[in-house]
C-alpha cells in the first residue's frame, strides 16, 4: 500500500506542482466554456439591415416600423437607391437588405405585393435564419392586414406550429454548456494521461520505475488518479457553472450524473494510458491525443446527431465514451433522464474503461519483453 | 602564424552571475587546443562566445580578425561549431541531413557533390547515407555532426565535448579526423571533461569557476608535478582500504584506483613522501615513482580531490548474502526479431566485487545490463540477482537491487525532498524507518539547503549525490550503474567513486556499464563485449597485459580496449576468408 501511495503522491505532485501546468489545465477549459457558450451560439440577433423604401405607402411604413422594433435587428439604415443598398451588403455593413418597390402598398391592397430581400451569402447561416425571421413578420403582417380589411374570406394560411420540448425557447446555451463540460473534460483527461508515461520515458525515469518493485498494475493505477481527479473536478465545475451562472434547469439526478462522470473519465483515462504506453516522447503523445480525440468528438453526436450517421459510424460511435456520456449529461440537465436510461448508457462506459485499462497494463508489461 | 582567435579582457555575466572573468587567450591556427575544466567552469559559454552566438559583457573576442560583436555574420561563416548535442534532424537520413546543412550554408551544384564525397569519405559514413540520423550510434552521430559543421570549410572549428557518449573506437576516429584538419591549418578547439584527451592536445586552456587557471602546452603543467606521482602496489589488505586511508592523509593531494594498485599525488610538503611510505608499509604495499599525468596536475591545480571517507558507506550495515555469487547469468541471449543483441553470455559476479561491462556502442552491453536488472526479459538463458531468478522472483530480486542511470533519472517536477519521499515509498519503506532513512540521506549527502528545489537546478555534484541517495535508500545488495559518470568532471567523478569504494567495502556488489575507460580501472573485473558476445573477461591489469605490443609497451585501458576489439575484428575477417 505504501508503495502505491508513494506513486500516487508522485503523480499528483508532478501534475500539479508546476504552476504553468496548473494554469494550463484549469484556465483554458473554463475560458473555453465561456467563449464557446457565447460565441458558438446558433441564435441570430444584432442583425444590421438596410431598407430601400420606394413605395412610401402605409403598408411599407408599417413594414419598416415593425422591422425597427424587431428584437433581432440591431441597426436599420434607410437608403436612397438600389446601388447603395447593394453597397451596404457588399461592404458587410448590412446582413440583410429589404427593397420595397414602388406601388407596393397598392399591390397589397389588391391581394398581391412583393418585396425583394437581399442576403449576404457569405454569412449563409445567419442570413438564412434572419430570412426566416423576416418571413415571420411578413406572415404576421399579412394576417393582420387581411383582418383589418375584413377580407376574412381569403384562405387562412395553414400554419405549422413547432413546439420544442425540453428546451422550449431553443436556448442554444442550454444545449452547448452540458456538452462542452463533457468534451473539455475529456480533452484534459486525455492530455494528462497521454503525457504521463511518455514524459517519464522521455526523461528516463520510467526505467527507474521499472527496476523498482512497483508492478505494472500499480503504475497504471497510480497514473489514473491525477487525471481522474482533475477531469472529474473540472467537469463538475463546468456542470455547476451551467446550473449557477447560465441558469440551465437541472432536472435529473445529480448523484447519478457524478457516478457516471467518474466512469466516463475513467474510460477516457484508459484510452489515454493506452496511447501513452506506446509513445516514446511527449510530442508523439500530444499528436496522438489529437488523432484520437477529434474523431471521438465527431462521432459522439456533439456536432451532428448520431442517428443521421451511416450505420458503420453509428456502430463506431458506440466505442466513443463521449457519445454515452453526452446522452446522460444532456438528459440530466433538460430531460430528467430516468435511472434506467442512465444505466443503459453507463455500462458501455464501464466496459470501455475496463478494457482500455487492461490493455494499458498489458502494453506496459510488453515493454519489458 | 597569427592567432586564429584572440580574446582580450573577456568578461561574461548572466545577471549577477559572472560566468567568465577577465580572460586573455590566444588560440593558434593549425593546432588543437583543449578546453578543460570542471562542470560549470564556463567552457560552453566560452565556446558560444567564440561562435558569435552571444556577445561579451566586456572585452572582445576576435576570430580571424573579425570581432564577434560587430562582424557576427562573418564569424558565423568562418567558424564551424558543434554543440554538445549537435542539432541533427533525427527523422532525416544521413544524406538528407547533409543536404539540409549544405542548403543552409548556400552550397550547391558541383561544389556540393564534391564536398559530400569528401566529408563522407573523411567520416567513413559512406555505407550509412540512407540510415536515419536518429538510429545512428552515439559515435556515428558525432561524426555526422562533425561533417555538418565542416560543410563550409571553416577556419576555426569549435567542438563542445564531442566525445561524450562515444565509445573508444569511434573516439579514435574523431581524433584522427581532427588531426587531419589541424594539419591542413585549421584551428580546432576541443572542450572536454576527460583529461586524457587534454593531454593529447598541443595547447591547453584550463578553466575553473570562470577564470583561466592555466594556458600552455599540457606537458609544461604536468612537468610541475615531477616526482610527486606515485603508484602503490601489492596491497594485501586491499587497495580500496588503502586508498580511503591515503586520501585522508594530509600529505596526499589526490588518489585513484589503477588496476591492482593505487595512484597517488603528493602534496608539496617535503614530508609528504615519507608519510606515504609509512602508510604503504603499514598496509604492506610497495611504493614506486611514476611519470605524472595531466590529470594529476589538473586536480593539484584545483586544490586536490575529495577525501576518502564515504559518510553513507560508513552508515551501512555490512551486506551478507547467502551465496558468494551476487549476480550471475548463464547462456543469456536476447533477440529482437532477427537481430541478436546479446548472444549466449555467461558470467558470475562475486559478492563485494565491482564488475564492469564494457564495449563499443551497439555491442550489446546495454541490452545485457538491462536483462540483469530486469528492464528487459531474456529470450533464453537465465539471470540471477542476489540468488533470485529474475523470471520467477522478480519482486524479491528488484528489492535487492539499486539502479542509477546515466542521466540521474530524478523527477524534475518534484522537489529534492519529494524525490526522496517517492523513492523510499516505492521501495516499500514506511513509518519511522522511512523518515529515518530520508533524514540520514539528507544529512550524509548535505542535501539540507536544497530540499525544496527541483533536482534540475542542482549543481551536477549534488544531482549525482541525490541520485545515489535515491538508489541506496532501500539498502540494495547489488547496485547497477549505467554510465554513471559520463561527461562528469574529474572532481565530481572522484567523489562518486569514493562512495562506491566505500559501499563495496561494506559488501555491496556493483555492476557498471561504461565506455569511459578510467571507470574500467576501478573495476575488479571487466567483461569486454563485442558484437553481442563477451570477448574478454579479466582484471583490468590482465587485459592491459594481454594487449601489450611493440607499439604500446604499457597500454592504457583505452588502448587495450581498442587492441582487443581490433584483434576480434581481424579474427572474424580471417574466419570469413577461410
Summarize the SSE layout with pairings.
The complex is a heterodimer of chains A (369) and B (578).
Chain A (H helix, E strand, L loop, with lengths): L1 H15 L2 H21 L7 E7 L4 H12 L3 E6 L3 H9 L5 E5 L3 H6 L6 E4 L4 H26 L22 H32 L1 H7 L4 H29 L9 H25 L3 H17 L12 H7 L3 H15 L3 H28 L3
Parallel strand pairs in A: 1-2, 1-3
Antiparallel strand pairs in A: 3-4
Chain B lengths: L2 E12 L2 E12 L3 E5 L6 H8 L7 E6 L2 E2 L4 H7 E4 L11 H11 L4 H15 L14 H12 L6 E5 L7 H16 L3 E6 L2 H5 L3 E6 L2 E6 L1 H6 L5 E5 L5 H10 L3 E7 L2 E6 L5 H11 L3 E4 L4 H8 L9 H5 L9 E12 L2 E12 L3 E5 L6 H8 L7 E6 L2 E2 L4 H6 L1 E4 L11 H11 L4 H14 L15 H13 L5 E5 L7 H16 L3 E6 L2 H6 L2 E6 L2 E6 L1 H7 L10 H21 L1
Parallel strand pairs in B: 3-8, 3-9, 6-7, 7-8, 17-22, 17-23, 20-21, 21-22
Antiparallel strand pairs in B: 1-2, 1-4, 4-5, 9-10, 11-13, 11-14, 12-13, 15-16, 15-18, 18-19, 23-24
Summarize the entry for a quick read:
The complex is a heterodimer of chains A (369) and B (578). Chain A has 369 residues and is mainly alpha-helical.
Short descriptors:
heterodimer; A: 369 residues; mainly alpha; abc type-2 transporter like fold; 2 domains; 14 helices; B: 578 residues; alpha/beta; Rossmann fold; Alpha-Beta Plaits; 6-stranded mixed sheet; 21 helices; 24 strands; 37% helix; globular
What's the helix count of chain A?
14
Query: What share of residues of chain B is helical?
Result: 25-40%
Radius of gyration of chain A: 28 Å
Q: Mean pLDDT of chain B, as a whole number? A: 86
CATH C-level class of the domain at 3-216 in chain B is Alpha Beta
- The level of helicity of chain A is 55-70%
Estimate the mean pLDDT confidence of chain A.
82
The span between the termini of chain A is: 26 Å
Which descriptor suits the 3D outline of chain A?
A: elongated
For the largest beta-sheet of chain B, the strand count, sense and barrel status come to:
6 strands, mixed
Based on helices, strands and strand pairing, what is the structural class of chain A? mainly alpha
The proportion of residues in beta strands of chain A is 5-15%
Distance between the termini of chain B: 54 Å
Strand and helix order of chain A: HHEHEHEHEHHHHHHHHH
By secondary-structure content and strand pairing, the structural class of chain B works out as alpha/beta
- CATH topology type of the domain at 3-216 in chain B: Rossmann fold
CATH architecture of the domain at 3-216 in chain B: 3-Layer(aba) Sandwich
Tell me how many strands of chain A there are. Answer: 4
CATH superfamily of the domain at 3-216 in chain B: P-loop containing nucleotide triphosphate hydrolases
Overall radius of gyration of chain B: 25 Å
Low-pLDDT ranges of chain A: 150-159
